Amino acid sequence: MTGLAALTGLAVASPLSYLAAVAIPALDALIPLLPSETAVIALGAATAGSHDPRIAVLVALAAFGAFLGDNLAYLVGCRFGPFARRRLFAGVRGGQRLDWARRSLERYGARVIVACRFIPGGRTAVTLACGLVGYPRRRFMAATACAGVLWAGYAFLLGRLGGQAFGDQPWAGLLLGLGLSLVITMVIEAGRRVWQRRARAAGAGAAGPGAPAGSGAPAGRAPGQRAAGERVPAGRGTAS
After folding, report:
1. pLDDT value at residue 1
2. How many Å apart are CA 40 and CA 178, to the nearest integer?
3. Residue 126 and residue 36: Cα distance in Å, rounded?
4. pTM, two decimal places
């Protein structure tokens, strides 16, 4: 509760607010000390009663921080691929997350980079995977810039809605904003799981009852997994 109290003490006139707006979303990509969405919602709640034009600067800094964090994760995936794989995608579940990110990138391209900002755990998995598989850098930067703007505006708006509902109790406004965010996230995650089940069912139906197990993938490699060093084709799945 002490952390929440500190966040509700932020204000548009405080230099700490501007530092938090850019630093927390940037670091959250690899060092999730504090969920970046919580910090941006808190800024929205703390400034809900103000119409100061500097509020736009806070939103822009949050978007820029998210952009920096995404591109830092991409760089780590590019330059330190084996280390990132061992530390962040270890074990069966880690391998499944990485394989999901690869398949999603191949099929949807930039759209999944934008959508992963709103999926729990999706941001780190997808942005690191982009670096690991060599996703085109310019397309990645464009997608993360768009994602950062959409995400910062969304999180800040939730905070302002909560702050306006409880103008004299900023902590209550923050909790309301966080609650709204949690509900929306749960709806998105439920939709994603339903879509995945339908996609698996459709894939099983297309393969047919007589299809051999693991068809479509070379021997020794799981379906959807790419060979070491193999890169995502630049022309696939990047339509927005």
Report:
1. 46
2. 10
3. 17
4. 0.69
Return the number of other C-beta atoms located less than 10 Å from residue 23's C-beta.
17
CA 166 and chain centroid, separation? 29
Q: What pLDDT digit, counting tens, does each position of 165-207 carry?
A: 666 666 566 666 667 666 766 776 677 677 667 766 776 766 5
Place of tokens 């995400």: 151
Q: Where are the domains of the chain?
A: 2-203
Q: Which two tokens stand for residue 89?
A: 């995608």
Measured CA to CA, the distance from residue 237 to residue 119 in angstroms comes to: 19
Whether 226 and 102 have beta carbons less than 8 Å apart is answered as yes
| Helical segments of the chain, H only | 2-8, 15-27, 36-46, 54-79, 81-88, 91-108, 110-115, 122-133, 137-165, 170-207
